[in-house]
Design a protein that fits this description.
- α1 runs antiparallel to α10, α10 packs across α12 and α10 packs across α13.
- With about 425 residues, the protein is mostly helical.
- It has one domain.
- It is built from 18 helices and no strands.
- The two termini are about 30 Å apart.
């Protein structure tokens, strides 16, 4: 099995286990407690998204292009991750105390923030991505995830409170880091990690747009759950979060595909730009076709999927699921363009569109949630996705070719043949 095959197989297994056990957890907790769990994880996620300082795609690129400096590249990235984890975990807890009425419980936030402190495995995984050793990393992550799923089953059977489900997330992060470390040391027994101030400065000088883009992206990925919990109650947040699971679960497919193809695109961009754009168009069309199949299936099946999966308490989420389903083609096409931003170094453009998209989503949520509840939050997400992932590309001449690729892919037109 090749690199992409291992990644897709891992993501498929994680989706299968995660979706069904996640649905069982939602049934067990009910909309209110599940909404509390989701809002807490979303609150911490808003802060944790910048724990890695947005250097992940830069690190993968540098590991591919500068193999003789891999020890310094990875060592510097891991040190930055530790510093970022401490800072963002502390910020999440302090903010929950400062905004006690709007934010989740400070105690639950503190427990959930432990996961951020233990997420070094995400940085170590970058080495496996760059070297295209997906089998080793996928095996480690699957073992950790399987153990975590087993604990969740025990917690459901034991009628455990929300706090223990948050502790389980921290345990999974620790397991991933430990198992990836074992795999890494087996493959590289003499590998030495070193720090470089010069390299850290280089990473941060290039990644600051990614930091803002990641924060803005959380505006339309996580903020809606927190706002629903604050404005409509935890039950509304629980129904919305349950409806997002069948949609967001499919994001693993384009993410796995683009992670696997990252080194190939880095080499193509260095040596053959026309072929780079052609391959970008090919992968965009493939992802659009996959997304349309999923979106139509979820939208048409939403009236019976929600009560079937989660029980009658979640039946009101059918309209939410039907609306969110149509974010898939747009999101998949946005992910398909990520190699262009990573290899051109023009991450500031991505930062701007994510920033405007996040602001747009939060603004629309303030308008729609009081009137339409969870369905309004879904509408706000869909509109902000369309703007952020596609329409924003028309505002800069350098990204207009990407919009053309996306529009052709959206209606499933084949890419033009590359010029010789």
């Amino acid at each position: 099995m090749d690199n992409a095959g291992w990644l897709i197989a891992e993501k498929a297994l994680r989706w299968t286990l995660g979706f069904f056990i996640g649905a069982w957890v939602a049934r067990h907790l009910g909309p209110s407690d599940f909404g509390q769990l989701s809002a807490t994880l979303a609150w911490v996620g808003i802060f944790a998204c910048v724990a890695g300082f947005g250097i992940e795609p830069i690190v993968v690129r540098e590991l591919v292009l500068r193999p003789h400096e891999n020890g310094t590249i990875l060592g510097t990235a891991m040190a930055l991750r530790v510093a970022g984890g401490v800072f963002t975990a502390s910020a999440a807890v302090i903010a929950s105390l400062a905004f006690a009425k709007e934010a989740p419980s400070a105690i639950l936030t503190a427990i959930a923030s432990i996961t951020t402190l233990l997420s070094l495995g995400e940085t170590l995984d970058l080495w496996f991505q760059a070297k295209m050793h997906a089998r080793l990393a996928a095996t480690a992550r699957l073992v950790a995830f399987s153990l975590s799923c087993g604990i969740r089953i025990i917690l459901v059977l034991a009628d455990a409170p929300v706090s223990l489900f948050l502790w389980n997330a921290a345990i999974e992060a620790l397991l991933i880091f430990g198992l990836l470390t074992i795999q890494f040391r087996r493959s590289n027994p003499d590998f030495k990690l070193t720090w470089s101030t010069r390299m850290a400065q280089m990473f941060l000088a290039e990644s600051w747009p990614n930091i803002i883009a990641n924060l803005a992206a959380m505006g339309y990925l996580k903020a809606d759950r927190v706002m629903l919990s604050s404005m409509n109650g935890e039950a509304a947040a629980g129904i919305y979060s349950a409806a997002t699971l069948p949609v967001e679960a499919w994001y693993v497919l384009p993410s796995a595909l683009m992670s696997s193809a990252g080194p190939m695109f880095a080499r193509l961009h260095e040596n053959h730009e026309r072929k780079f754009m052609h391959e970008l168009a090919r992968i965009a069309r493939f992802q659009a076709a996959m997304a349309w199949i999923l979106a139509l299936g979820l939208a048409m099946g939403s009236p019976w999927l929600m009560p079937l999966i989660y029980g009658p308490d979640y039946a009101k989420g059918a309209a939410v699921l039907a609306t969110l389903a149509f974010t898939l083609p747009v999101a998949f096409l946005g992910l398909a363009m990520s190699p262009w931003y990573q290899n051109t170094g023009l991450t500031v453009i991505a930062m701007r569109r994510h920033l405007f998209g996040g602001i747009l989503n939060i603004g629309l949520n303030y308008i729609f949630i009081p009137r339409l509840g969870p369905t309004g939050a879904a509408m706000a997400t869909l509109i902000s996705y369309i703007f952020t992932h596609m329409l924003a590309n028309c505002f800069d001449r350098r990204t207009r070719p990407l919009l053309i690729i996306q529009m052709r892919a959206l209606i499933l037109l084949p890419p033009p043949k590359p010029c010789k």
